[in-house]
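Record Glycoside hydrolase family 3 C-terminal domain-containing protein, 948 aa.
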Amino acid sequence: MNEPVSGTFRDPALPVEARVADLLARLTLEEKIGLLHQYQAAVPRLGVGAFRTGTEALHGLAWLGPATVFPQAIGLASTWDPDLVRQVGAATGEEVVAMHHKDPAGAGLNVWAPVVNPLRDPRWGRNEEGYSEDPWLTGVMGTAYSRGLRGDHPTLRTAPTLKHFLAYNNETDRCVTSSNLPPRVLREYELRAFRPAIEAGAAVSLMPSYNLVNGRPAMLSPLINEVVRAWTGDDLLVVSDAYAPGNLAGLQGYHDDLPQAYAAAIKAGTDSFTQDDDRPAATLGHITEALERGLLAEDDVDAAVRRALAVRLRLGEFDPATPYDGITEDTEDIVNSAGHQALARRAATQSIVLLKNDGLLPLRAPERVAVIGPLADTLMEDWYSGTLPYAVTARAGLAERCVTAFAEGVDRVALNAAGGHVTAAEHFAGGPLAVSQTGEARATWFDLFDWGGGAYALRTCANGRYVSVGDDGVLVNDQPGPSGWEVRQTFRLDERPRGTVALRHISTGRHVGLAPDGVLRLTDDPDTAAVLTLEMVESGAQAAAELAATADVAVVVLGDHPLVNGRETEDRADLALPPAQEALLRAVHAANPRTVLVVSSGCPFAVTWAEENVPAVLWSAHGGQEYGNALADVLFGDEDPGGRLTQTWYRSARELPDLFDYDIIATDSTYLYYRGTPLYPFGHGLGYTRFVYSDLRLSSAALAPDDVLHVRVTVTNVGLRPGTEVVQLYTRQRRSRVKQPLRQLRGFERVRLAPGESRTLTLSVDVADLAFWDVTRGRFVVEEAPHKVQVGASARDIRLCAHFTVAGESIPARDPYARPLDAADNDEYDGVVLCDAARSGGDAVRGTDPGGWIAFREVDFAGGAADCLLAVSSTEGGVLTLRLDDPLYGEVIGAVSVAPSRDRYDLATVTCPLAGAAGVHDLYVVFENEGVTVSELRFTRQATGSAR
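=>
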């Protein structure tokens, strides 16, 4: 590295904009292009070093060795304590800086956290990474964590990146599926989760998601430049997700070649390409070619480079000193420090949610506790966890408090094949599994773990290691458990005749065969799969039940494995507990009715049988290194269970819409619109004392759109012990032009009260926040309407209500002559999808089913409309019919044929003469054929005195 060059860009007393402009002006075009990859090239002649985006820090520093592991993000949000979440973010930020000082190349200061995708569907494989199904609460928690990461000084401690923009809740085919977002869902739900952290200056970077949105790759969304960047006056850095740029001309085929795709991405707002790991040459070549072909201008490159440099300047890279220089390379003083360990314990404790309690909890110093279950003596690391520096399991935490006995509750089996038993190597390094007629019985025993969804893992008793599949296809017992990006340690048990099974390797889809030398090896031919008989050596459920019968209380710890049957790249098929785990719980409860179920998972489970039968049920996300201590503190009543659900727990996956349907309004999804009776509602969580709500008062019963509503309520602890309550404020608009949420969280406050203590709380709501997106005029509107305030302990446990009115707007009938009717701005639809009107911007509607339609409510045609000009396309041709008031039987006012077009972007304007379009009516555009696309409708008035 050359000596630093002096200049304006090195003067911290000057504004960031001036410093960036100075540095940008010093760079050659080639040097500027070199800054557009994840691995930004050094510029030695200016003394500018290399820079890398992307250090994972979702719930602690990840992927860089042992570091403090806090509860998963869904667990942090379950504390309903933004200040605690901010403290966790700050601790994580300190550990990132410490590791950066130790290894600048390995630990960059641009962190890829938090995840603020609303948790629309609990089957999403990455559910544990988000905060809540409520976008406002997601924004609160995302802002808190980001603020902790970035620090309070103008110089950034780290540069937080919000993931993943936009409408990303499915892993299945995630790179090629389109999330269809009607305007209201986009504005009221999805964008609402991303805005707060950026608007507050807490997050300074954004990562687009892999999926498409309304037919266009999210990475190319015009919303990045047109909407998101308008939320802040600072330069917002936009980084691509890993290997997403290649998808634009690859899996997605959205552009013909990569230079074209990279040019489109830069123009759409991408500033940093995460492609080909640390090999930027190909990316830089595509950008250079795009410039040579005239697809990009140097000004486009400058805009992207300016944003990349602005973040580096704000991180203090070119300053003589930063506030964080004292965080030294001696990471032991920071990473997993005593203070961070205590914070991890407090976060884990406050994240635990008591779902049900018939009086069994808190435990009163029982003499003997049976600790049971496949998660009772282990802690799980998810894909974005740090490496656990130590692990306090449920068993270990409880053993500090009482006499414990342990049973894993997992079936132990032998696998019998033709010619003998499958046998495992006994040395720790493992070896190939082979069929043998000799050897110790223990070498033929396997513990069979059921992780749900038909996914099983096999742990050998010979050496305690898990069965995996090597690159050569040979089964070996050499792994500590299911792990890695490509999980190679899970199998399905395919049924064969007469009670036999065949093993199918989930990762490759290939079956396990028996080679001539007796070694188990994958085979491409299912017909040559080894036929195996599972012989029960010991029933895990029976052994656990026998143990439970000897104990005062049984604590059964069940849940998911974060890397199996629901993780990045894999969604869940259902919400049920794994069958073997459900059977274990029932057997233990039958043996000892004093059973506590502890669910440890990154997602909700439909524990309906447990809710009906088990006296106490708790849930925690995978809680990090202090999980066991936190659980023991709650079970024994040293701490109140302070957590509350941030997501609805349903009774069955049958209550959920299609995983790919993102229209929460039309499908009655999330607590906002769900009309059924959940197993456990949003906001639910019990404590060990009882609270009474009283004296609800509103600051006013009549408000204007620019007013603030102040809600006062008194909460009293009427129990016999101190406790924590999370007081939640919801509102409901009781009359509207459109479908409104049944309830919507507007505020909350955690309060801790001694027995008999009362406290009066004031929660405030800006009336402007009651606005919804008016599709008739393309803006937010506060409607004139009555509202209800609901205050309580959950979305379904409402204790007090009050009413108020808002003197807002009355939404008039649509005026079809004042502005075009954008097809995407319809009020209702059936048999259509939203799509991209052009590659660069705009939405349209495409018919997918013959007879599909879109509806525009209350269109005021006044004295009459003469014609409708429709912007349409169809590669096959088709017919559109315009009807009034009903899509099947309504009066036909016009029909038009759509000629075949070159492609669906080849929109042409066709004129449809109208007859009978007068007065106020609901207008239906009916797609008589699939494949017809409509982007807008323009109406012309009937001339005065004319008639048709």
